[in-house]
Automatic annotation (TrEMBL):
PROSITE patterns: RADICAL_SAM. InterPro entries: Elp3/MiaA/NifB-like_rSAM (IPR006638), MJ0683-like (IPR040086), rSAM (IPR007197), rSAM_sf (IPR058240). The keyword Iron-sulfur applies. It comes from the Bacteria. GO terms for molecular function: catalytic activity; iron-sulfur cluster binding; metal ion binding. The keyword Metal-binding applies. Pfam families: Radical_SAM (PF04055). Residues 65-299 form the Radical SAM core domain. This is Radical SAM domain protein. Signal peptide: none annotated.
Length: 358
């Protein structure tokens, strides 16, 4: 529990939840926090740590039927963006950390990702399918500015003429515009930009270390003007927080050049339910109970939702209203727009970089 006067600034989560795989847990007691407050001392230095890890593979097959991707890869585990609702938080427990503050402050870095990707694309039995960067955590989070692993991976995709999609909410993607434009020449790239609100106040508390909304709209505009197809994820939609913004957000991103929109309704599985509930009672105490009840209403009376086919769209009256608004937004602002299917036919001759005789 965090002392109300010791709120951790610049972070989404305000606690480290217990790792379900561990028997023992670490607790910061109230009496210690009170002592630090009275003495003017920091109970926590709140610094981000970058930790190198060395996985054997980097491309993951996605078996979920309602995620919308077949293969993904993640250059980083954990994400400094600190989005309070992030479904990826639970995956940090697999690495031995908490889904709370650890997820935002202990970032695992896969420096071997480019070489692992190249080895994968050169496999004789690999048939080109779009690989999505950021299937779990943002490939353009702050760590990328230092390590440039995402850029190196884009160079590999370009070298082997292989299709790739990107999901991000960071304007750092514009640094790699040269590579994105080169990939777009052969229809090998699409970008999914996440925009959750048009309000900076909402963005700041939901997603504390992400690019501003203005910058994200600029990303959509600049990528679109350069011929790079952009889909915008209005995700997640959270009842009574950003659900009233669906039509204005759709209009804004369409005018910026987006070709389509997608959405999900927030679900708070595993440790995220505790993290989100703790956060909203501190960040929005006047509406916390209302928001939590409405989220539960979308998921059969619980914050946790794991049923395929239902978990992303929810059920019930509130969920139906949200889904209907998104349908209306598509009809109104995206009626004559289509995202292209990426090119999978160029990769095969580039596996060995040699001409075939027969």
């Amino acid at each position: 529990m965090i002392h109300p006067k010791s709120t951790i600034k610049g972070r989404g989560a305000q606690q480290n939840t217990h790792n379900r795989f561990f028997e023992l847990s670490y607790e910061m007691r109230d009496d210690f926090l009170e002592f630090c407050h009275k003495e003017g001392e920091l109970s926590d230095n709140n610094k981000t740590q970058y930790l190198n890890v060395f996985p054997r593979t980097i491309v993951n097959k996605v078996t979920s039927p309602d995620v919308g991707m077949a293969y993904s890869m993640n250059m980083y585990q954990g994400c400094e963006h600190g989005c309070i609702y992030c479904y990826a938080r639970n995956s940090h427990e697999f690495w031995g950390y908490s889904a709370g503050l650890d997820f935002e402050r202990r970032i695992l870095v896969k420096k071997d990702a480019p070489s692992l990707l190249e080895s994968h694309l050169k496999k004789k039995n690999w048939k080109a399918q779009t690989i999505v960067m950021s299937g779990n955590t943002d490939c353009y989070q702050p760590a990328e500015k230092q390590f440039e692993i995402t850029r190196q991976c884009l160079e590999v995709f370009l070298k082997y003429k292989h299709p790739v999609a990107i999901i991000t909410k960071n304007a750092l993607i514009l640094r790699d515009l040269d590579l994105l434009k080169a990939l777009a020449e052969d229809n090998l790239i699409s970008v999914n930009v996440s925009i959750t609100s048009l309000s900076e106040d909402t963005r700041r508390i939901l997603e504390p270390r992400t690019a501003t909304i203005k910058r994200r709209l600029q990303v959509v505009k600049e990528l679109s003007e350069q011929g790079i197809p952009v889909n915008v994820m209005l995700a997640p939609i959270i009842p009574s927080i950003n659900s009233h913004e669906i039509l204005p957000m759709a209009k804004a991103v369409s005018e910026a050049g987006a070709l389509s929109i997608g959405h999900t309704i927030v679900r708070l599985n595993g440790a995220i339910g505790e993290i989100f509930s703790d956060w909203i009672k501190k960040a929005m105490p006047d509406k916390a109970d209302k928001v939590l009840r409405q989220i539960e209403d979308c998921h059969g009376g619980t914050l946790n939702e794991s049923r395929y086919g239902v978990r992303m769209r929810g059920e019930g009256q509130i969920a139906q209203q949200i889904n209907d608004l998104v349908k209306l937004a598509r009809l109104k602002y995206f009626n004559n727009k289509v995202m292209p299917v990426l090119n999978t036919k160029l990769h095969e001759p580039f596996k060995n970089r040699q001409m075939k005789l027969f």
